[in-house]
Amino acid sequence: MTADAGAPVLSVKNLTTAFRVDGGWKSIVQNISFDIAPGETLAIVGESGSGKSVTSMSIMRLLDPAGSRLEGSIKLDGRELLTLSEADMCLVRGRDVSMIFQEPMTSLNPVFTVGRQIGEVLMRHKGLSKAEARKAALAMMDRVRIPNAVTRIDEYPHQFSGGMRQRIMIAMALAARPRLLIADEPTTALDVTIQGQILDLIKELQREEQMAMLFITHDMGVVAEIADRTLVMLRGAQVEAGTTENIFARGTHPYTRALLAAVPRIGSMQGEAQPLRFPEVDPTTGEIKPLPPVASQVSGRGGPLLSVRNLVVRFKSGSDIFGRPTGVVHAVENVSFDLLKGETLSLVGESGCGKSTTGRAILRLVEPKSGEVLLDGMNVRGLAHAEMLGLRRSGQMIFQDPFSSLNPRMTIAQTVMEPLLKHKIVDRKGARDMAAELLRQVGLDPAMLGRYPHEFSGGQRQRVAIARVLGLKPKLIVADESVSALDVSIKAQVCNLLMDLQERYGIALLFISHDMAVVERMSHRVAVMYMGEIVEIGAREQIFTNPQHAYTKKLLSAVPVPDPARRGERRRQPIEELRNPIHPLGYEPPQREWSEVMPGHLVMSA
């Protein structure tokens, strides 16, 4: 069906979605209404649990009809979707309306090549033959800028990087040239440079096809770059809607102001000597909580707390018919830095650059091939197994996903008490009292001790992970993407908590992240990693105001800016994947040369 001139592609009126809970119906989305015109982008924003994704799944009719109930009206080009049979709806999905999901690895079939999966859409909805579908799939892969598409069309999803997998998802979604594209958090899990490329690509393809787009996200920087209009959701209800410019400049609802106030902005730290706490806004009143500046506790007396010299980590790769390795992954190459007591050093870079491996190698969670690691006077690489308990007390790690790092069968009390008992810090009776106090320190109610991890939100689970670490009174915490998956306001709270604990206890923090705006606000110094090597290191202000290495400049230029006036701009970054870190056996990287731009600001020569 063809829409009338000026008519909306999608019209949603009084949509209410309810789920069956304990024999009754609970409304998750309540009376949502909006229209999207051809070529227009509407962003739905809000935190996890606000109903954003349920709204998109309702439009696609992907919810189980046995456990869900939809009321209201959803019209696509004037055609009511709620009254269509499932067979008719199957024809609509992929042809008239398509969806890009947040995690492409779980959305793509791992046993089929990417070419076959793109071609399947065309064979199903366009009636193409297998040969015609393959040719069209190759054209789509070229269109979404997959390098060397001719050879990669027969590869499987696991052979692509996260950014390239997301491009395959976009190719599948756009193969049948739909009227409406729904993008559900399509860039949340991506590195900042890949995110910038994907946003540019989506905008360009939308302009060519005049598609309507529903973009779901909690990243207000992305909203500013891509959305014509914005709808704000809170607890399943629509609390504010309008043009993106008006929402950003004159948002009236307290929750809208809370979301905007919590967004870190690149460049906001110029002239600041110390890290700054993130603004926290009471979503009920909209008032910004007064937060004191971070008092400097950095101390180099007695030398650095952590000293890393020429750290190398390599992994075997592939095997011949005799089981012998055929290559080596050069994960970390010749990395050196110092970290002082009470200091935050951020390691930044794209996925695969060696950030996480560096953090794990420092704590002997992976074994380095060579190099020296001194932590609080201990030679980490020289410790025997029986001496590792001392290392675990001095250095602890917070992981990205607290749900997978917390045992789902253990209560929060057991989780927080376990390291206290293992290290014999207190007896069992004292451990429960200490666990209650640790929960208070991270802003949780001690009454929650009897709960299990699945009963907490993502932000609360991360607080539990921090409480578990804090009980050992570590001198070093390695925070590995510990706030990357959190909503913007929860991210602000967890970052503030880490800075508060650092100030109170003088903890050194190795903060691993690809979120440059968060890094700028939290760091004393920054080290930029590329292909396993540190290519630039210096004070925060040196890196952000005077970047020298081409890769550092690329990272900074890709950060989404929460300014709707920049919506029409394109980054025009070259589309490329991270170089392959796998080398033949016996390969040794070239010797690197460094130049000192300013005292403490070192850059690897090209």
Question: What does the model show?
Answer:
With 606 residues, the chain is of the alpha/beta class. 33% of the residues lie in helices and 24% in strands. The longest helix has 18 residues, at 192-209. The chain is globular. The termini are far apart. The model is unreliable at 1-5 (pLDDT under 50).
Task: Give a topology summary.
Layout: E1 10-21, E2 24-36, E3 41-45, H1 52-60, E4 68-76, E5 79-80, H2 86-92, E6 97-100, H3 104-107, H4 114-126, H5 130-143, H6 149-152, H7 162-174, E7 180-184, H8 192-209, E8 212-217, H9 220-226, E9 229-234, E10 237-243, H10 244-250, H11 254-261, E11 306-317, E12 327-339, E13 344-348, H12 355-362, E14 370-375, E15 378-379, H13 388-394, E16 395-398, H14 402-405, H15 412-422, H16 428-441, H17 458-470, E17 476-480, H18 488-505, E18 508-513, H19 516-522, E19 525-530, E20 533-539, H20 540-545, H21 550-557, E21 582-584, E22 594-598, E23 601-604
Parallel strand pairs: 3-8, 3-9, 6-7, 7-8, 13-18, 13-19, 16-17, 17-18
Antiparallel strand pairs: 1-2, 1-4, 4-5, 9-10, 11-12, 11-14, 12-21, 14-15, 19-20, 20-23, 22-23
Helix pairs in contact: 4-5, 4-7, 5-7, 7-8, 15-16, 15-17, 16-17, 17-18
Task: Provide the descriptors you would attach to this structure in a database record.
single chain; 606 residues; alpha/beta; eight-stranded mixed beta sheet; six-stranded mixed beta sheet; 23 strands
